[in-house]
DNA sequence: TGCCGAAAAGTCATCTAACAACTTTGTTGA
DNA sequence: TCAACAAAGTTGTTAGATGACTTTTCGGCA
């Protein structure tokens, strides 16, 4: 086994064995090097790997710590990379997004609070009123986030955030017929919101699935330009 | 911005900009250091991060390459870390697993081939016949894998694999009443298989959801021991 | 000519040593 | 008691040298 792998598994085991729990501080690098039998360079490479995966966290001048170990943080680490997937491999993800958005919408319909509902309605009103594509995109994202949040499952919310971060890069509304598409999209949003307001999970689920399927179809059909961001 | 971050974003951008595509080789480390303006140590830390995330791949003596950039590989990188999540943060994941297994089972019922069906039935027969908990666990995993595979969405299959890798660490069948639990579990599997054989997506979906919910309930109730693996 | 093996070049892997940058702790002095 | 400063501790970065593995090149031989 290579030195970096040794260090990686050693660090990982310190957490899985329960020797270190969430938020706790690792020994300094020099001690870890002795214990794991690798040089500082190799150890640091292993630390970076776990840090990229959202498991640990280095603070300059202070130390290296176990993260909070929340599922949503670990899933969120995917957002660093989903943007690199080619469009071809993306359609499977849309199938997942459709299923998960439908579930989140259904849960939201069952659980949403009055304040969250008011926020959601405010976003959708703003979205319908504007012609600015940037503002519309932003409201779109926040609208879906609000629903996922109301669903009450942070892990699901993180996963949907990852999928959406990829979809958002495709600027459907910038297409020649973008205004027409936005109008249809607004109708889809409104159907979801109405179902949630009516506290009807089945209707919310169906509306959300239809909305995602629609976006998916546009993506396949027009293959819109990628945003620079 | 720190040196490692510079290198990380530089490498990432080489891919997102299209300068390098899947399977293509990066320039040697020395050139990358010059171009990105960082030392070799920092560059290597950035490379390790992207490699942990499944985006690039270093081959000793040969070079550093962009990965195949398949969604399933990038999602699969989570399996390195989900095992570290505390049990408390795991129940949200079971909700997701329930939804996704249900979808996969429905898709399998709609799409499965005769050969895949035969394999699935072989696994379930073997599982029902044995008392060996290790063999049963292995068949259990492969049974669910076969269904996910038959569902035809590699991304979904990878995601379910991640969730299952975590569940499998809990050895429900090792509990005092493990034999009883296994019998119930076998019935759940049989219900899923029957629905798939009958090409009935709705029934398959319901059976799969029920099965996952059952496992979830056992986990909450008994909090079984973690495997050492 | 064609092929095989050895040598050479190219590349990543690892280690050591040193210094820089930042944070935390301890101490001093008013 | 508190503020400012000093010291110690820790991670961040760089440089150079050596090892290990892969690929290419080239010479020898049938």
Automatic annotation (TrEMBL), chains A, B:
Keywords assigned by UniProt, alphabetized: DNA-binding, Transcription, Transcription regulation
Keyword Electron transport: no
Hydrolase found in the keyword field: no
SMART domains per UniProt: FCD, HTH_GNTR
Domain of life: Bacteria
SUPFAM superfamilies: GntR ligand-binding domain-like, Winged helix' DNA-binding domain
Record CDD domains: WHTH_GntR
Domain HTH gntR-type: residue ranges: 1-69
Pfam families found in the cross-reference section: FCD, GntR
InterPro entries attached to this UniProt entry: GntR_C, TF_FadR/GntR_C, Tscrpt_reg_HTH_GntR, WH-like_DNA-bd_sf, WH_DNA-bd_sf
Full protein name: HTH gntR-type domain-containing protein
Originating species: Leifsonia kafniensis
